[in-house]
Amino acid sequence: MKILKIMLIFGTVFSYAVGPTKVATFDRSLWGESLSTQSSFDKASRYEILSYVRQIINTNLSTTTVLKKFVGRKNVNLSSVQKWKKSTKEELLQNFQLAQKTCTTSNKFSLDLCKKVNSWAELSIMAREYTPKVNKKEWYKASQTFFAYYLYEQARLAALFPKITSEIDKLDASEVQGFNFEDGEFLLTFDDGPKFKRTEKLSLLLQEKDIHGLFFVLGNNLEKSLKVHGKKKIKKLYNGSCVGSHGFIHKSHQRLKTWKSSYDKTRALIANNNLQNTPKAKVWFRPPYGQRHKKLISYLATLNDTVMLWNIDSQDWNRNLSAKKVEDRVVTLMLLHRKGIILFHDIHPKAIKVVNVLNEYREQKTISWVDCRSFE
After folding, report:
1. The model scores a pTM over 0.70
2. Which domains does the chain have, with CATH numbers?
3. How would you label 349-361 residue by residue, b for 16+ Cβ within 10 Å and e otherwise?
4. What is the largest distance, in Å, between two alpha-carbon atoms of the chain?
5. 311 in Cβ contact with 168 (< 8 Å)
6. Per-residue pLDDT tens for 314-350?
């Protein structure tokens, strides 16, 4: 795809704090098939992976000049993008092979895209040669647009890294992104709370569905909630789930001079009220916007705490996305990545609606939820 076309799609790029003006989502009903069985889930996964592969091979990101035009930034890190692209190719090949595990001649739902591929080159050839059937043309058009946006989102984060850190890459081997989970495993995480009534409603849903998610609380919100509702109610609020730190205030901890006190204050609120619910009382830390520095990571290590990032961003905070669009985005990225950490926000109402729908896949045994209480 030509750079000019991509730029016309994305339009003006705002500052990193608010992210790109366009985000990837599309109407999943265009797929026209259910995802109710493992074979049907895998089939859809193969198609979405191949769609993304086609965007990657048709997009030139090989020089600093074209990268600047693509992401709309004057200062870019080409080597970071090349590293991201290499790891992405490896992931997509592995995921495509995993999605072929239900390719059998006895199953009518899993015959498509079942030719064995052993390399990125072979997967690229398959993507170039793929032509959608009549009943898949509308889906394919929408999917290609989705992955044009998603490629831009990811390449932009990589181009800014590490000057502006994010979830796109690790600063240290100890950090967790979700890519090393087993196939089909996903961890639900929720940022920015507590917002008592909304958090309570979500927590009750998780308890009802036997889901054990991880809440990354803002210290100032937790402190206020403890004063208003008391320790017992807050403990009950997170019953069955785990609590990690999101810092005391929602500001970039890469630039925040008081990052240490921000972390210490929030950690103390969590630990003193015994909210972690994790092995060895570990406190996971999710830096706001994923922005952090190596000194912070080293400090966490002295406390046996660890940074947890994510690899599936729901964008549920985005006012331009309805709950249905958030759902469609998350499902598409679950089909693409096949494993990982999903980022939601318990202060927004969309998470409740989307999680309720996503749990149907667990009930159908096409995915499983990671239990935060046993995750180390």
Report:
1. yes
2. 3-160 (no CATH), 185-369 (3.20.20.370)
3. ebbbbbbeebbeb
4. 62
5. no
6. 999 999 999 999 999 999 999 999 999 999 999 999 9
